[in-house]
Amino acid sequence: MMAEEQRRSEAEGDVLPWTVAEFYRGQSVLLTGGSGFVGRVLLEKLLFYCPDIDTVYVLLRPRKGLSVQERLHKLLDVPLFDRVRAQRPEALGRLQAVECDTAQPGLALAEADARVLAERVSVVFHLAASVRFDDPLITAVRTNACATRDLLELATRMTKLKAFVHVSTTFCNEKQHEFEEKLYPVAGDWRSILALVEAQGQSDPVALRVLTTKILGPYCNTYTYTKNLTEHIVDHYSDRLPVGILRPSVVVATARDPFPGWIDNFNGPMGLMVSGGKGVVHTCYSDPDCYIDYVPCDIVVKGIVLCSCEVARKGLGPLLVYHAARVGIHSITMGRVIAMGLEAGAELPFSDTLYHPCCNLTRNRLLFLVQFFFFHLVPAVIGDALLSATGRKPMLIRLQRRIYSAMMAVSWFLLQNWNFANNRFLGLEKRIQPEDREGFSYQMENIVPEAFIRDALHGTRRYLMKEPDSNLPQAIQAYKRKRLIHLILKTLFYATISWIILSKLHFLLFAE
Asked: How far apart are CA 80 and CA 264, in angstroms?
């Protein structure tokens, strides 16, 4: 009976006709963004779970005096790939670096390399993008939109192409807070925007900066605007190429695979976690009652891989969009996230903290500015004065200026609730073969927030801050000392305020 139901399900298209390993057997993959956080986790997943994959071409650009091959070796030299090195060392030989620059026309790709990719590649993962919110329009359009168009043009030459997966973001349309897994309109035609940027960017970049506000329209930054623009470019090729889009929400540390807590960048909540844990940030412009939609990186990567299998099965046709989001699965507010982070920080404190970790969230802009002035700027001025007096370079005011800019850039996303429909994304997991359950099942309902945040903090401490577990006892003792100092200063502050108020009341009540 069960076998009959499975055959019927396969006939109806509910179950993938192959396992992930079978789909990738003998296939060559092209990956952009392989040096990034999600890109590296995706590389590890492919190398470990697809033992018969042919070649993975990683597009990289030379950087800091390193060739692309040297950069490839460096990005592999991290604990993330320990499992591959131990159990599938031969898989590392399947990686091949290809020199390119996604910010340049035609990806700055040599024609000889383009021919090899066109002849051999059957799956493309496009992850490369600028994630800076304050990029000039010309930079964001070139890196996010023009590069995608050029890569899609290259894909039209790929004779074996089975799937092209573009990784976008759930926040690519700010004009509403209820999102379905579909394409949304964008302000302006993408061809006109690209032509304008490519023409004006060369002849009159100043004029383009002046036009930026008008071009962006309701979008609050160039990142979200260009990500939406890019999705329409992908859709334009959907009648010629098998394409799909996966939109992750806020990507955070890994939950399970290859191990809990892997993180290698300060983007998003990790930056707040580190700056708060280091005692640098004490207030944040955010609604403590708004829900934050975060998704572990390994679940995003599973979705990307399964999306490629589904796109290959679908072939040409309407564009499929998937939301890698956790809506309805252990929903949690920003206030609770901060509280759990502080609780975990008491057990896993960072070393050499500036002050006792504490962070107050407020949705009131005026209150935030007042708190930022007293808790951030005033201590920074005093700290820089002490650094100058001791012959060291002042840095705290500059640091607080960057922190303020970062907070204002993300405040739009932290002051309101977002609802991302994710039925299609969750449906991908339901269509995998039984053999893929271990490696590609999401099981998001089993990710308990408290345990996950503790693992994420531990991973941040170990892999991002490079702090060994052996120094934990000393860090805990330092944490307790600074907590005592914090309580004493807090008591003195409130005692002083109370004394001033009582003195004024006494004067008003008993003055003759």
From this structure: 10
Largest CA distance in the chain: 97
**Residue 243 near residue 164 (C-beta atoms within 8 A):** yes
Residue 503 confidence (pLDDT): 83
Enumerate the β-bridge partners of residue 321.
245
CA distances from 36 to 51, 71, 177, 467 (A): 23, 12, 28, 21
The pTM of the full predicted model, rounded to 2 decimals, is: 0.90
2-261+293-329+419-435 CATH fold: Rossmann fold (3.40.50)
- The CA distance from 231 to 477, in Å, is 51
DSSP 8-state assignment for residue 350: P
* Coil, helix or strand at residue 59: strand
Instruction: Dig out the tokens for 162 from the structure.
Output: 């089975």
User: How far is Cα 189 from Cα 141, in angstroms, rounded to an integer?
Assistant: 13
Cβ-count burial 400-435 (b if 16+ within 10 Å, e if not): beebbebbeebbebbeeebbbbbebbbebbebbbee
Residue in the structure block whose two tokens are 């623009």: 229
Peptide bond into 242 cis (omega under 30): no
**CA dihedral of residues 373, 379, 380, 386 (deg, nearest 10):** 150
List CB contacts of 36: < 8 A, sequence separation 6 or more.
Answer: 127, 128, 265
Per residue in 136-176, pLDDT (tens digit) is 888 888 999 999 999 999 999 999 999 999 999 998 876 66
Residue in 34, 155, 51 with CA at minimum distance from that of residue 94: 51
Residue 54 tokens read as 């042919």
The C-alpha atoms of residue 95 and residue 43 are separated, in whole angstroms, by: 9
Q: What pLDDT sits at residue 105?
A: 87
Q: Side chain identity at 228, as an amino acid letter? A: N
Domain coordinates in residue numbering, the chain? 2-261+293-329+419-435
Q: How far apart are CA 319 and CA 242, in angstroms?
A: 8
Give the single-character DSSP code of 367: H
Residue in the structure block whose two tokens are 């955070």:
252
pLDDT band at 201 (very low <50, low <70, confident <90, very high): low
DSSP code, position 349 = P
Q: Could you report the per-residue pLDDT of 471-507, keeping only the tens digit for each?
A: 999 999 999 999 999 899 889 888 888 888 888 786 6
**What 8-state DSSP symbol labels residue 291?**
B
Task: Kindly report, residue by residue over 428-468, the tens digit of the pLDDT.
Answer: 989 899 999 999 999 888 899 999 999 999 999 999 999 99
DSSP 394: P
